[in-house]
Amino acid sequence: MVDDNDLERLRDLAVPAPDGDAKARAFAAAMHAFDAQENISTAPQGTPAGLRLTERARTLWREIMQRKLIATPAITALVALPIAGYAAFEMLKEQPPAISNGKVTETVADKPVAQKPAPNQPAINEPLAAAPAKEKKADADSEDRLKDEAQVAPAAPKPAAEVDSLAKQEMAPEAVPAPAPAETTGGNAGASNGVVRMGFSAPGDAAKLNRAPGAVADSKLMVQPAPMPADQMQPQEENRDRIETFKTNPVHDAAQDPVSTFSIDVDTASYSFVRRSLKDGTLPDPDTVRVEEMINYFPYDWKGPDSAATPFNSTVTVMPTPWNERTKLMHVAIKGFDVKPAEVPKANLVFLIDVSGSMDEPDKLPLLKSAFRLLVSKLKPDDTVSIVTYAGNAGTVLMPTKAAEKQKILAAIDNLEPGGSTAGEAGIKEAYKLAQQSFVKDGVNRVMLATDGDFNVGQTDDDDLKQLIEKERKTGVFLSVFGFGRGNLNDQMMQTIAQNGNGTAAYIDTLAEAEKVLVEDASSTLFTIAKDVKIQVEFNPAKVSEYRLVGYETRALKREDFNNDRVDAGDIGSGHSVTAVYEITPKGSGAEQVDPLRYGEGKVDNGGVANADEYAFVKIRYKLPNEDVSKLITTPVTAANEVPSFAEAGSDQRFSVAVAAFGQKLRDEDQTANFGYDRILEIANAARGADPFGYRAEFLSLVRLASSLGGTK
Question: What is the pTM for the complete model shown?
């Protein structure tokens, strides 16, 4: 068949000069042929039927229809081929190959995914299907076959002497089939003569095109804008993180609104998210900064309870405010009972793992697999592990298996591969079902969801997911959420289902963070010692004119919710530390931000009773893990809880205040607007204390990063 280059050469040939002898010979030959024909054809002048390709196609179709030789494969092929051609055309328009200096450069989508050889691993419990293995083998065979069949060798260049014969072939009634070209394996061989070589290395891969420089301009499919200069800023990918927006807690007038109520929060996801943003060279979005989660990220040596009968102990300290000399801080610290290893109950864990297409990034599924390997190494032999995955639909990868069969569990984790949409709802239902099948009475029954939070199949609305989780938690199975990756993180969904699943939410951005959450803090992450923990503080208007709670904006409760045992709240794990900080304005200090009422103020005279000198009254309500009726702990806050100077407060109190100041600074709150990063560094460095894992040293580096990114703020 004649290609574009041959036609170009024909067009550029000079027209031969008239030859009288040749003209006479041609005329004589024509007359002889005419005289020799006895019956003159009645066909009209013009190109005979059958010479053009379109006419041949119509004739062939007419004959097929007349002879009724239509078969199902033929119909399928005739319908599918135009559709496939159009789809290929659209793909080339959307992502044409980048061409520079006559060479075709593969895009990222063009490159075939590297296939890992399957290691020799022990068999995994049913219901693992055998069909996928056969499909993978068939895909591999098909891939090799496509590679071999799709290679089209370039045509050899034709000399100028063959142009006449090419023209004769083009005008002949029937085209002579060209000999089959030889296969080539060289990467550049297909580009030498302007012939397009197309091959598909795997299903779904884009075509790889090689074409000569001279032929590029002749094909509209090959038109490509000039590549972007190397020193030009590349467009950034769209950030589709879903973060809940909230307003900072306001200042309250103690005379008009003396009671503050909130649920505890032991999540740490916000700190990890802030850390990743700063290490990436950007200040975090203020809505990603939840100050209480930053404070509670660090372990503190608060005084704990003496026995498990009282699950936690509270310590309250009043100290001067480092960023405002006319206000004070009321620091409330809670320490959970630390369960001894010998007393740790048996665990029934279900790993609910997102293996959808959005998890196919190094900081998602690969990091997730490494993280859960660490957790498996921490479990006791009698603990039970199950694995459920979801992507498009949910499936059980590993039936309940004792942790003693460690290699079988690790093999199931290692075999996870990403792909498909995200059917999170189906996965959650399947995980709860499996947890119920292997339920351990008086033990730890927990679903551990690992995802980037991108639910796009089933119930994707946060409220619907909340109702689903609330229903399942009543069965005694709790849920914790671990977020991975960035750019597609649904932090809002993670917070919603963790809060309503009696669990925690953590964001894992590094293997070191995975070790902290799943190994070092495993007891507090897995073993709940108290649930539905609420805090209510009543301030004495005779001593406190104003107050504000630092953080906990997303955990606020109504005043009447405190005594309502049906209202859900946060849980405390073994050895957990929880810290809350109030900034209070002492009566008559002159630091009040709310103007007094023109027509009088609320009555604050307590009639000379003994508690008139109290700053506040702290109440903590909680339930034991297997009980539905709450218990109450109360603590009056008096001058005995106060230290005269900030420097005399304990090192843990001072460090937590430095973290609170840092969180407020990142949120650009008014109270810390004039409090510099240098002062935060000074306080944190002086209160660094024992730092066996280096968490506090890392905090100092984050403050320095924020200072450099925030300028003089």
Answer: 0.66
